[in-house]
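Exercise 7.
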Amino acid sequence: MMNRHTTLALALAFALGCGADEEATATLPDAALIGDAALIGDAARASDAAPIGDAAPFTARCAYTNPFSKGEECKAYTGAAWDLAGVTADCEAVLLSTAGVLTLGEGCGYPQELGRCVVEGEAGDGYTLVSAGDDPEQCALAQTGCEVFGGGAFTPDPRCEGQGGGVVTGGGYGETPFVQPYQTCKDPLPGEPAGLGPNGQVCTWTLISGCTEPGRRFQDYGSCADVLTQRPYYGAPEPANTPADDPRLMDADYMGEVAWAKSQVEASACVCCHAEDLAPDGPSWWSIDAGPIWIDSVRDSGLAMMAGLAGSDSLGAFHPEDNNGFDRTALGLPTTDITRMRAFLLGEWARRGYAVEDGAQFEDFGGPILDQLLYEPGACTRGEGVDAEGRLSWSGGPARYAYILKAGAANPGVPPNLDEPLDTLWFIDVPTAASPFDSGITYGALSAPQQRQRLPREGAPPPLTRGQTYYIYVLKDIGFPITRCLFEYEGP
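Solution. The predicted structure, written as tokens, is:
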């Protein structure tokens, strides 16, 4: 059975910098990550093929703790296509490496709930996801996860009525607005050489793909707190598992390359999720502090991405000249020396017994960001678009980003290089600290002081032509699209 809730969760943990490892993508059809064996109720053990769903005499549920929100959730299997084998396999890996407790004969319910997400499975494999909790500030995130990534219908608990339209505050990715990229220039730390920036300062972009100068540490010149708003973070430490008698430990040249590669990572925002003293709940899937050879903590899928054998273009990248010489366009790991880094990573790839062509077994990285770039829009069906009076209409609540593009334009992606696609006619947003804006704004006009016109850089956008098809793309926040469809302009 396809586990769309697991796919939804994996969609919230997708990047090299701050996210789940995607090794399972190559082996599991739903990209689920298998954890420990599930705790299965006695009733489930009693039968091997009990039907669940039609006029079945029982129901089934999977209860677990969400590793992101730390809250209790319950998945009730409602589709007629579910059988015991399907729900058992699903509950074993219901959410990344989280195994749930499967119980037959019971549905889901909590004394205090945020709401219920009903997902209608096209193949009869639907489910209802119930989120426990009493904090209204979690309502918007629950609704977004349901409607944007799960493709479900969210029914909020009364405590959540009116809470789902905005982006909630506090916390990390999805819980506070995406901190848009910014560059800071600081004096070098005492004892460090002068920087390459104006007046000898060190200039660094705070963004998940940003890097400070080589030989320095990102955390000294950028902000990991802001980076954590830009990618999902899931603590899952991996030991290096380097044998004590590994001959590499006695190879001074090799250990020198290990240290150099580590220093390259330390200069990048990757450390925010892959260093023990920076990652809030421990390093995410690999750690530069794992020893004695840190690269041993990287799973095969992550190594394939680092070495450029599995694509990661959808995650975005700076031009090297804007990023202190660090390049992430040829490899998945930012580096100032592509040849040297590639040799180091491919050497490790070969040591593990792989040939270069074996990298093809791993799908491109990016999760929902990649899916959004590949999305093919259909016709708007609920009046979305620009009406005859020039007003933009969309569904899904207030937005932080809104685009009008030519039909056939590329989908907007993440900054710094994918968020302003060619054939964008008009693009507006609001700063990180500003409130989102509602549907009903006028094409070409700013309706609030904090709204900003990003494209065109100057002047008014081109007028729309009656009878012409255009593309409206609106996001609650980076990575959270709420409307994206084609409309025919019926204006004058």
